[in-house]
Design brief:
The protein has 146 residues and is α+β, with helices and mostly antiparallel strands. The protein contains 3 helices and 5 strands, in the order H-E-E-E-H-E-E-H. The radius of gyration is 17 Å and the shape is globular.
């Protein structure tokens, strides 16, 4: 599969940009004007897929509207295919290093899941439940709503 225009902006120190440019081979699955999907080289389960924008952006909020729409349209199109492997798909985005992002290029994981795969729900990723007061909840609510 060859990549087509428009010409994305690259950071050649970024492994995903090097995949987009063709300098690193990948098992490409589909592409759109602004995005590509490919098999994860280090899968968490059989059929683990990544969907990325062709241009280098570290966080989702750095994408322009067209890139964002295009990225999540491709995600939506790939989910049915990934679902066909095990019947359920974990969709994950780590938005920034503090959120666990290992490669500073927006990427969406589509990970086939099953009841017996040893992974749990999102709450199992955290060792303890956060204690938050009603006052703190209201402050966060106001900040997020404004």
């Amino acid at each position: 599969m060859t990549l087509s225009s428009p010409k994305p902006s690259f950071d050649m120190d970024c492994i995903f940009c090097r995949i987009v440019s063709g300098s690193i081979p990948a098992k490409l699955l589909a592409q759109t004007k602004h995005s590509i999907s490919f098999m994860d080289a280090f899968p968490l389960s059989k059929g683990h897929v990544l969907v990325i924008p062709k241009s280098h952006h570290e966080r989702i909020q750095d994408l322009d509207r067209d890139e964002n729409t295009d990225l999540f349209s491709l995600v939506r199109g790939m989910i049915a295919k990934v679902d066909s492997i095990s019947g359920a798909t974990l969709l994950a985005v780590h938005n920034g290093t503090g959120a666990g992002q290992e490669i500073p290029h927006v990427h969406v994981h589509l990970v086939p899941r099953s009841d017996s795969d040893s992974a749990g729900p999102i709450h199992s990723m955290f060792n303890s439940r956060m204690e938050i007061t009603e006052f703190e909840t209201e402050q966060l609510y106001d900040k997020l709503k404004s």
